[in-house]
Structures are given as C-alpha cells and as structure tokens.
Write a structure and sequence with these properties.
Layout (H helix, E strand, L loop, with lengths): L2 E2 L5 E3 L1 H11 L8 E9 L3 E9 L6 E5 L4 E5 L3 H4 L2 E7 L5 E6 L19
Parallel strand pairs: 1-5, 2-7, 3-6
Antiparallel strand pairs: 3-4, 5-6, 7-8
Length: about 120
C-alpha cells in the first residue's frame, strides 16, 4: 500500500503546480501522476528527473496536489525529503523545473541541481 506524503516530505511552488497542471491537461486520462526519480549521474552521483506514470506501486509515496499526484518510490524519497520543486521561466526560452533544498550528497557544491553537483 502506498504512503501519503506531506508538504514536509516534498512540496511544489505555485508556478510548479500551475505548469504541471497545464501539462496534465495535455496527457491521456490513464496517467495517474508524475513520478520523481533518481538516477546515477552528476558530480555528486545522483541526478533527478520527472516522468508521467500510469501506475502507483506499493512502495511509492504519493503527494496529492489536487489536479494530479506526485509519486516517489521509497528508494528515491530519502534524496528528496524536504525538497521544494519550482518552475522557473526566464522568458528567454530557457524554462524548467528546479529542485531546491536538495541535500548535499558529499562532493559538489549544491548549485547545479543534481543533488550537490558542480555549478
């Protein structure tokens, strides 16, 4: 059974919620949420990403944001606990999601958004 997450576990700014809501309006109805994941990479050894998902697994934590759900598996959650996700659009075509408050994983300087990567 999946666990419910709170905003102390993970949060999204209003711009991030708005952008994800906009993106959700463009995907199939069978999409259950957006999955946050960690993968090897970056100078600290961990990169983060997001993808749409149509499944919620027993080992997932779920943050209900209203229009959509944010889903994080129990292996990724420790890396993201306390993170605030923002959407930044600088108006120059360079827009994207930013993971703020990432814990330092050892090595790196926490400035490039890859969990303490070099910037």
């Amino acid at each position: 059974m999946s666990a419910f997450l709170t905003e102390q576990d993970l949060s999204l700014t209003v711009p991030a919620q708005d952008k994800l809501g906009e993106l959700f309006s463009q995907v199939d109805d069978n999409v259950r949420g957006v999955r946050l994941f960690a993968s090897p990479g970056g100078c600290s050894g961990v990169n983060f990403g997001m993808t749409f998902t149509d499944s919620v697994n027993d080992n997932d934590g779920v943050l209900d944001v209203g229009e959509f759900k944010v889903i994080v598996d129990d292996g990724t959650l420790p890396y993201l606990r306390g993170v605030k996700i923002d959407f930044v659009d600088q108006g120059d075509g360079n827009a994207g999601f930013v993971f703020n408050n990432l814990p330092t994983m050892g090595g790196g300087c926490s400035t490039c958004g890859s969990a303490g990567g070099c910037g």
